[in-house]
Design brief:
This protein has 252 residues and is α/β, with parallel strands linked by helices. The chain has eight helices and seven strands. Belongs to the short-chain dehydrogenases/reductases (SDR) family.
Length: 252
C-alpha cells in the first residue's frame, strides 16, 4: 500500500517509540520523511533503516522557536515544501501540583504543548500551499484526568482542544487537523514502570494489553491519508476500549 508517494512528512520525536514507528510507516508507504528530535544518535539509527534519498535528520528542540523555525526552513530547502506534520514529540513526568517544582511542570508543558504550537506555527504557511494536514499525538489523559500526572494531563488536554480549534480555523483553507489519543503504549518510557505496574494497567484495558508503537503509527498514517479525507477535528482514542468502557484514562 503506497499512500504517500513523495509526500514530505515531518515527524517530531522520531528517534524512538511512536515517532520511530511512524517515520518507518510513512517511509514504507513512499513518503519523504524528515526525522526530528534532540538526540541525533537515535535519529540517525532510525534514518539508517530508511531509503537515504528520502530521509533527513534535523536536530530540533521543539520548545525552542529558533530551532523549530530552522527545522522547517531546512525541510523546505531540501524538499521544496511540507505535506504532513506529525507533532509527536513529548514527555511524561509523574507528580501532582506540589510534588513537581514549577520549573519541572513548565518543562512538561513546554514540550507537550508549546512544541505542538511552535511546529504548527512555522509549518502552516507551507501546509496551506500544499493543502496538507497535521496529526497531533495527544493522549486519553487529555480526554479525561489521570492520577499523578497533572502537568501531562493539562498539556494533553490542551492539545486535544488545540486540535479541534485548528480544525475549525483551517478546514476551510484545505488543511485537516486531527489527533491520536493513545492509552498505554509499550515504549521505553512505559517499560520503566516494571511488570507489576504494567500488569495493573493491562487489567484495566478491555483488550487486556498495551498498544504497540506500530499500532499507533497505523492510526496516524490513516488520519494523514486520503482515506481520511473527510475526517477533521477528531481526537481518536487508541486505547483498547478504555474510554468506551468509561474506564480511567492512562497516558501513552
Amino acid at each position: 500500500m503506497i499512500r504517500f508517494e513523495d509526500k514530505v512528512v515531518i515527524v517530531t520525536g522520531a528517534g524512538s517509540g511512536i515517532g520511530e514507528a511512524t517515520a518507518k510507516r510513512f517511509s514504507q508507504e513512499g513518503a519523504i520523511v524528515v526525522l526530528t528530535g534532540r538526540n541525533t544518535d537515535k535519529l540517525k539509527r532510525v534514518c539508517s533503516e530508511l531509503p537515504s534519498s528520502k530521509a533527513l535528520v534535523i536536530q530540533t528542540d521543539v520548545t525552542d522557536r529558533e530551532s523549530t523555525k530552522n527545522m522547517v526552513d531546512e525541510t523546505v530547502r531540501h524538499f521544496g515544501g511540507i505535506d504532513i506534520l506529525v507533532n509527536n514529540a513529548g514527555m511524561y513526568r509523574a507528580g501532582d501540583l506540589l510534588s513537581l517544582s514549577l520549573e519541572e511542570g513548565d518543562q512538561v508543558l513546554a514540550i507537550n504543548l508549546n512544541g505542538v504550537t511552535n511546529c504548527s506555527y512555522f509549518a502552516l504557511p507551507y501546509l496551506l500551499k500544499s493543502k496538507g494536514c497535521i496529526v497531533n499525538n495527544a493522549s486519553v489523559s487529555g480526554l479525561g484526568a489521570d492520577w499523578a500526572g497533572l502537568h501531562y494531563c493539562v498539556a494533553k488536554g490542551a492539545v486535544v482542544n488545540l486540535t479541534r480549534a485548528m480544525a475549525l480555523d483551517y478546514g476551510s483553507r484545505g488543511i485537516r487537523v486531527n489527533s491520536v489519543c493513545p492509552s498505554l503504549v509499550l515504549t521505553s518510557m512505559t517499560e520503566r514502570f516494571g511488570d507489576e505496574i504494567l500488569h495493573q494497567f493491562n487489567d484495566r484495558i478491555p483488550l487486556q494489553r498495551a498498544a504497540t508503537p506500530a499500532e499507533v503509527a497505523a492510526a496516524i498514517t490513516f488520519l494523514a491519508s486520503e482515506d481520511a479525507s473527510f475526517i477533521n477535528g477528531v481526537n481518536l482514542p487508541i486505547d483498547g476500549g478504555v474510554t468506551a468502557s468509561n474506564g480511567q484514562p492512562h497516558f501513552n
